[in-house]
Amino acid sequence: MNPAPPSFESLPLPAGFSLARDHQGRLCLFDSREGAAGPLCVDFLAGASGWRLRDLGRSDLLPRAVGLKSARPPRTLLDATAGLGHDAASLALLGLEVTALEVSPVVFALLQDGLARASASGQELGRRLAQRLTPRCAEARAFLRLSAAERGITPDVVYLDPMFPDKRKAARSRKEMQHLQGLLPPPSAAELSELMTLALGAAAQRVVVKRPLHAPEIVENPPPSHSHKGKSVRFDVYLVTSARPR
Ligand SMILES: C[S@@+](CC[C@H](N)C(=O)[O-])C[C@H]1O[C@@H](n2cnc3c(N)ncnc32)[C@H](O)[C@@H]1O
């Protein structure tokens, strides 16, 4: 069960941003700055996101990158930079037990609201998400520094999709990135390097990093074991050689 949605009225927001429910009862982030994108909310049941979730298969890029087609498929995944939870939800619906971390309380409120509404809908998809996707408002490096016992999870896979200053091509990403970049600065190279080191130390099987297709790797060392390339993004896979028993 996901915890009850938080009270959003008290969340601190930068100038020009506000949170309110739309006519469908969805919690949305509004950006009143000149030229800003329309409201942003999480809806796992409808629109492009709902369609994408229902359409995803194990042979798609991200499921393949996390190892769902491998001889020893993962069981647990830590999405350390969950954002609005599209990737986390996709992987949970494919059967993984997903813990999703998000550092921004505002983005976390949108994610938790989307999950709560999906769960309350009575639809099968919402029931499955509530069973397999656990959101937590936490900073990933602080979380990964905790011992496995304190974290309560030894993830087979750690997945990273941090924000990058790069321009992404997809319209959905552009709109979301515009909102997210307005709320939070992208992490520094030093933060990404520390995040990667901690992720490699915590993952039992592999770390997977989402990158724009032609962008450099998240860190210079180590190089990825291999990559899965799409039209605009790629997933760099870092296999953890000393695979620990589950
Ligand atoms: C590009 S978005 C992730 C999109 C996500 N993969 C999806 O499918 O919706 C990156 C998110 O990571 C969060 N983030 C960045 N650094 C973080 C950190 N150190 N700990 C937790 N969350 C972080 C940002 O707040 C942002 O919401």
Topology:
Elements: E1 17-21, E2 27-31, H1 47-55, H2 61-66, E3 76-79, H3 86-93, E4 97-102, H4 105-120, H5 124-132, E5 133-137, H6 140-145, H7 148-151, E6 157-160, H8 171-183, H9 189-202, E7 206-212, E8 226-229, E9 233-239
Parallel strand pairs: 3-4, 3-6, 4-5, 6-7
Antiparallel strand pairs: 1-2, 7-9, 8-9
Helix pairs in contact: 1-3, 4-5
The chain binds S-adenosylmethionine (SAM).
> What is the CATH C level class, in words?
Alpha Beta
CATH topology, by name, is Rossmann fold
What fraction of residues sit in β-strands?
15-25%
Separation of the first and last Cα atoms: 24 Å
Bound molecules: S-adenosylmethionine
Look at the helices and sheets and give the structural class.
alpha/beta
Give me the CATH superfamily: Vaccinia Virus protein VP39
Shape summary: globular
Largest sheet: 7 strands, mixed
Can you characterise this structure?
There is one protein chain. With 246 residues, this protein is an alpha/beta fold. The chain has a single domain (17-239), classed as Rossmann fold, CATH 3.40.50.150. 35% of the residues lie in helices and 19% in strands. The protein is built from 9 helices and 9 strands. It has helices spanning 47-55, 61-66, 86-93, 105-120, 124-132, 140-145, 148-151, 171-183, 189-202, and strands spanning 17-21, 27-31, 76-79, 97-102, 133-137, 157-160, 206-212, 226-229, 233-239. The longest helix has 16 residues, at 105-120. The two termini are 24 Å apart. The mean pLDDT is 88. Residues 80-87, 101-104, 107, 139-141, 161-163, 180, 184, 187, 195 line the site of S-adenosylmethionine.
